[in-house]
Amino acid sequence: MNITATSLDSEGSRFFGRELSSRAIESHKELVRGFLENAKEMLEEDGEIHITHKTTYPFSDWGIKKLGKGEGLKLLKKSKFELSHYPGYINKRGSGGRRSDDYFPVGECSTYMFTQS
């Protein structure tokens, strides 16, 4: 079983303020840590955890590879996210407000694939 999370955008989050604030970054990192902690408990022997995430600033400051390592996971592969490989995929904003169904440009993203260490 593979477990996937997509974190392409959380722009405009009404809970954390501006994306580049250290408080927002730490809050988002804590969310990813929690996801990884729970996902690794469900991972089968040869399973993988995939996280797709923006790689430009300030999103690059989340340190996805380091978060995985901190949870005892090994980065198997990192590849450029290609939206065309996911027909029918529609990205959503993470804020949950009136604009949560609005489209936003995906931009530069990578998919991080982790396995058990």
UniProtKB/TrEMBL annotation:
GO terms for molecular function: rRNA (uridine-N3-)-methyltransferase activity. GO terms for cellular component: cytoplasm. Residues 21-93 form the 25S rRNA (uridine-N(3))-methyltransferase BMT5-like domain. Pfam families: BMT5-like. One of its GO terms (biological process) is rRNA base methylation. InterPro entries: BMT5-like. It comes from the Eukaryota. Signal peptide: none annotated. This is 25S rRNA (uridine-N(3))-methyltransferase BMT5-like domain-containing protein. It comes from Arabidopsis suecica (Swedish thale-cress).
